[in-house]
Design goal:
The protein has one domain. Helix content is about 35%, strand content about 20%. The chain is built from four helices and five strands, in the order H-E-E-H-H-E-H-E-E. The strands form two sheets. The protein has a three-stranded antiparallel sheet with strand order 2-1-3. A two-stranded antiparallel ribbon has the order 4-5. The protein starts with 10 loop residues before the first helix and ends with a strand.
Length: about 110
């Protein structure tokens, strides 16, 4: 089964993420991004100084609560990285809307 966490966004979560995009300081927002084995963003959450979003490891658990699934994804090369700005957030929201995105390194469509 293919894991697509961006597709699991609730309406409220989607709205909150859109609100972040339009904040005056959006380019300075620090966040965790869940990347697939190709390095493409699959989910995004602003870094918070409280659990469960304090560390990359805790963020991975929050993105993928199921231990076995998280382990399998990690073995396949999925990882959580810290990022700044909203470029990855734009990709995640496009995925949640069902839009194809483009790999910035190859220019090829991803889904």
């Amino acid at each position: 089964m293919l894991f697509e966490p961006a597709l699991a966004l609730t309406g409220a979560t989607y709205g909150a993420l859109v609100d972040i995009m339009y904040r005056p300081d959006a380019d300075a927002v620090t966040a965790w991004v869940l990347r697939d084995r190709h390095g493409q963003p699959r989910n995004w959450h602003q870094v918070e100084n409280r659990s469960p979003w304090r560390t990359a490891e805790a963020a991975f658990v929050s993105f993928v609560p199921d231990h076995k699934q998280r382990h399998d994804l990690a073995v396949m090369g999925w990882k959580v990285e810290q990022t700044q700005g909203i470029d990855e957030l734009r990709v995640v929201l496009a995925l949640a809307r069902g839009e194809a995105t483009t790999d910035p390194t190859t220019g090829e469509a991803t889904s």
